[in-house]
Specification:
By secondary structure, the protein is of the alpha+beta class. The chain has 4 helices and 4 strands, in the order E-H-E-H-E-E-H-H. It has a 4-stranded mixed beta sheet with strand order 2-1-3-4, covered by helices on one side. A hairpin with a 5-residue loop joins strand 3 and strand 4. The chain is globular, with a radius of gyration of 14 Å.
């Protein structure tokens, strides 16, 4: 099972993060779906996951585990060779990491803007997107 990143499809910051991951993911270990997609809704319903807990990035691991907030971001970066050193921040207290994550998430539309609709992948990238 591939690692699946669920992201806010209307968030410019989240879309930029997805583009960054695609560029850096040389082994193509990640697949993507917007949180607004049927795939994400179905997957999170299967997990009985409360989507009110997070509204930006969720990682579903190879083991079908759901990671959110800073745990998700750091686990993603760990898989990108040039940025895997950032996984070191995993040793900071979760409350501190998630506070920083939540601060950015709360302000992401203000700072980076919002799209009217979800990103549509190019034909070259379509195979990386689910749903």
């Amino acid at each position: 099972m591939p690692r699946v990143i669920l992201f806010d499809g209307v968030c410019n910051l989240c879309n930029g993060f997805v583009q960054f991951i695609i560029k850096e993911d040389r082994q193509s270990v990640f697949r993507f779906a917007s949180l607004q997609s049927d795939y994400a809704k179905k997957k999170l319903d299967q997990k009985s996951f409360d989507t009110s807990k997070v509204d930006s990035v969720i990682l579903i691991t190879e083991e079908d585990q759901v990671l959110i907030k800073s745990d998700a971001a750091l686990a993603i970066l760990k898989q990108l060779p040039r940025f895997s050193w950032l996984y070191f921040f995993r040793f900071l207290p979760l409350t501190l990491r998630d506070w920083v994550y939540d601060f950015i998430a709360r302000n992401r539309y203000l700072w980076f803007g919002k799209r009217q609709e979800c990103m549509i992948p190019t034909p070259e990238l379509r195979s990386l997107f689910l749903g």
